[in-house]
Design brief:
Layout: H1 17-67, E1 71-76, E2 81-83, E3 88-90, E4 102-106, E5 115-121, E6 124-130, E7 137-139
Antiparallel strand pairs: 1-2, 1-4, 2-3, 5-6, 6-7
């Protein structure tokens, strides 16, 4: 019933070259997938922040037109926040901005001092521009 164990011979010790190659291929495949997923998350974070800031600026413009009073929009480089008197948006941790801190007022007519906020995430860059005369919001690709 019991079988005697045989001692390993030289042929059964260690890993075969094929086994090592398969393990290396699996590690490379997992690394590639994770790098691609990280790039997508940077792009998604950037896209989300651009959309949120554009919405915040549009709301500020509408509030100024409704109330007849100027609305102040402020970007803080140190806090990484775009805020108005009624709302604020903090940039995602993956998103940075080389734009200096600034404060503008949006008048009821839509006129303002103009704003060009550049956002960067990894190798991706987008900007949100507020036209100084018309108050139109433009997003760059």
């Amino acid at each position: 019933m019991w079988k005697a164990r045989r001692r390993p011979t030289l042929q059964t010790r260690g890993f075969a070259t094929v086994e090592v190659l398969v393990a290396v291929a699996i590690v490379v495949l997992i690394g590639t997938i994770s790098v691609l997923a990280l790039g997508r998350s940077d792009r998604a974070s950037l896209q989300n922040d651009v959309a949120e800031i554009a919405l915040l600026l549009q709301q500020a413009r509408l509030r100024a037109a409704e109330t007849g009073q100027p609305v102040f929009v402020e970007y803080s480089e140190t806090d990484r926040v775009v805020r108005t008197e009624f709302t604020a948006h903090e940039l995602d941790r993956a998103v940075a901005s080389p734009t200096e801190s600034t404060r503008i007022s949006i008048r009821p007519s839509g006129e303002n001092e103009g704003l060009n906020l550049v956002l960067v995430a990894g190798a991706h860059e987008r900007s949100v521009e507020l036209d100084w005369l018309t108050g139109q919001i433009r997003l760059s690709q």
